[in-house]
Design goal:
17 strands; alpha+beta; eight-stranded mixed beta sheet; 37% helix
């Protein structure tokens, strides 16, 4: 198979190699998070706000991922959440979220993941990159979601391996909808008003705290849809491939790719409704702010 999306020719042999590396690295980082977690784990630093935390294990997990990937693929680039940003020469870049759901990990809540995705193109350009192979380790359940472009998506764990086929609810009112919120208070206030409007329209809302797991659980049928504004490529690169290879639609306001502005996953009708719903309220908010300024 040669699949070109105008960036580079991806052979089936390369896809399989990248898939194998992603699986191995996600598993190794998941093992580190479990076996090496210090009893006195604390906050090592903060980013967007005092609640946007980084622990030493975020950094150690990313360091391990980079070390293992570099051994296997020395000419590839990196775009990691904790600052490993390196341009490679191969045309492949590894987008790594060493702990997606850091707050859950800090609080020992069993909903955090390691997301490792090999992509082609530039992950810093919206619409300018596509995932080729990915693995998302659901650490607490010792299972790994994984996919390679054109090869379907799967989950493997203590009960064996099964293929994922998206089957989201047809009706919005029957949809179990996941979302998430930013770390800045003013953003959260707006997002809270928006989700309050959606709550009576859907089956229920879940706020899990890991975009990667939200997207994998849409792929597996454990959620019907998911949307969030303010995520980064490391949050959604892995889940994007896993959800889309399972048959879910993944998009933003602007096209068939997720962006920082909006990430939306689910049945096409639901995703179309949610993107329009969020866009309308974002526009209203922008107009209010313009009047204030
Ligand atoms: C998390 C995202 C999640 C979002 C959280 C947080 P992190 O990523 O995966 O969707 O709602 O606020 O940003 O920071 O744990 O890697």
């Amino acid at each position: 198979m040669v699949d070109s999306v105008g960036i580079m020719d991806i052979t089936s042999a390369l896809t399989q190699e990248l898939h194998s590396v992603a699986l191995r690295v996600a598993r190794s980082c998941a093992q580190l998070l479990v076996e090496q977690r210090p009893a006195d784990l604390g906050v090592a630093a903060t980013k967007a706000s005092a609640t946007d935390v980084v622990t030493e294990m975020d950094r150690r997990s990313e360091d391990l991922a980079v070390e293992l990937i570099r051994q296997a693929r020395p000419h590839d680039g990196f775009f990691g959440e904790e600052g490993t940003h390196e341009a490679g020469t191969s045309g492949i870049t590894w987008i790594v979220d060493p702990i997606d759901g850091t707050v859950n990990y800090l609080y020992s809540l069993p909903a955090y993941a390691v997301s490792v995705a090999a992509v082609e193109g530039d992950p810093q350009i919206d619409g300018g990159w596509r995932p080729v192979a990915a693995a998302v380790a659901n650490v607490a359940l010792d299972e790994v979601f994984h996919a390679q472009r054109g090869g379907g998506s799967f989950v493997v764990g203590p009960q064996g391996e099964r293929q994922l086929r998206f089957s989201g609810a047809r009706e919005l009112g029957q949809s179990l909808l996941a979302t998430g919120f930013g770390y800045e208070a003013t953003t959260r206030a707006q997002q809270g008003l928006l989700v309050a409007e959606l709550l009576p329209k859907v089956r229920d809302i879940r706020r899990i705290g890991s975009a990667a797991l939200d997207m994998c659980w849409v792929a597996s049928g454990q959620l019907d849809a998911y949307y969030e504004a303010g995520c980064y490529p490391w949050d959604f690169a892995g889940g994007w491939l896993i959800a889309s290879e399972a048959g879910a639609v993944v998009r933003s306001f602007d096209g068939d790719f997720p962006t920082h502005k909006l990430l939306c996953v689910g049945r096409r009708e639901t995703v179309d409704y949610l993107t329009e719903f969020v866009a309308a309220r974002s526009q209203t908010q922008d107009q209010k702010e313009a009047k204030r300024n």
